[in-house]
What we know:
This protein is mainly β. 0% of the residues lie in helices and 53% in strands. It contains no helices and eleven strands.
Amino acid sequence: xxxxxxxxxxxxxxxxxxxxxxxxxxxxxxxxxxxxxxxxxxxxxxxxxxxxxxxxxxxxxxxxxxxxxxxxxxxxxxxxxxxxxxxxxxxxxxxxxxxxxxxxxxxxxxxxxxxxx
Length: 117
């Protein structure tokens, strides 16, 4: 059974930082690209960042230079370091995994990030 468990969300002031974590189980981690997506109320889900098993990264333009995605294959986890947070970053952040061979995709339950003064 595949499980993606996110943690680290919360309320932060504009300009602050948060670090999200996603612990994966039930997959062959090194065969999966990992990603973070977000969904704000009334908006479509959007890509935040992805990272391949080899460490290649991709970011949405809106977060480049502020967010950093990383992964630790030894503990099957992916992280999202978010700095210089803005109110428009407020959303539910969801962890995603996609197998590079089968393209099978799984989602976590999400963690709420609220940026507000």
